[in-house]
Amino acid sequence: MTAVRVAIMLQDPLATERFGVWLGQHLVPGDVVGLIGELGAGKTTLVRGIAVGLGSTDPDAVSSPTYLLVVEHPGRTPLLHADAYLPKKLEGFIEDGGLDYLLDPRAVLVVEWGQRIAKHLPARTLWIEFTMPPGGGRRLELRLACPSHFPWLLELPKMA
Ligand SMILES: Nc1ncnc2c1ncn2[C@@H]1O[C@H](COP(=O)(O)OP(=O)(O)OP(=O)(O)O)[C@@H](O)[C@H]1O
Ligand SMILES: [Mg+2]
Question: 10, 14, 16, 85: which to mutate for ligand 1, most atoms within 8 A of CB?
């Protein structure tokens, strides 16, 4: 199957969070999501929603884990929230055997600044790129190298 790109426009932070909830309700253990977007793009807002959708017990605790590298949020499906803003730190962790921890088949892994460690992430990774249109809101482009892995994503909800 060929790669697929789909885009969604989210007008405000609540729409970003709600889209994250919808993602979290569909993601399954073993899924990997890479987030691409500049400072303040809305990545962590989306992850907070994903945590809600995954049934995390502490979604309000989701924040940018820049200096913590990876934070685990327990719940119905555990969320591993990583941050590659400082890629050397996460690379070092990965080289020391951390990839087995990150790619836990019982958890969903979401990596902010994921493109900075792209070579370590599986081909099936769902990539989401945030841009900030001049008119406001956020545009998210979702890239699926393996669309058959995320069939539910081809039916994006109306959240504009
Ligand atoms: N769709 C949206 N429209 C407008 N503002 C948004 C939208 N989604 C999120 N925001 C706002 O963007 C700001 C930055 O959000 P957030 O902290 O999630 O970004 P980030 O990409 O994680 O930033 P950083 O790289 O600094 O960690 C917040 O004030 C958030 O409310
Ligand atoms: Mg962040």
Answer: 16
Strands 4-10 and 79-83 come out as unpaired
How many whole angstroms from its chain centre is CA 121? 12
Q: Which residues does ligand 1 sit against, CB inside 6 Å?
A: 10, 12-13, 15-16, 37, 39-45, 64, 137-138
Tallying the residues shown for the chain, one arrives at 160
Kindly identify the ligand whose nearest atom is closest to the C-alpha of 35.
1
Q: Which domains does the chain have, with CATH numbers?
A: 9-147 (3.40.50.300)
Global pTM reads 0.95
Q: How does pLDDT run across 79-95, given as a tens digit for each residue?
A: 999 999 988 988 999 99
Determine contact, residues 138/127, Cβ cutoff 8 Å: no
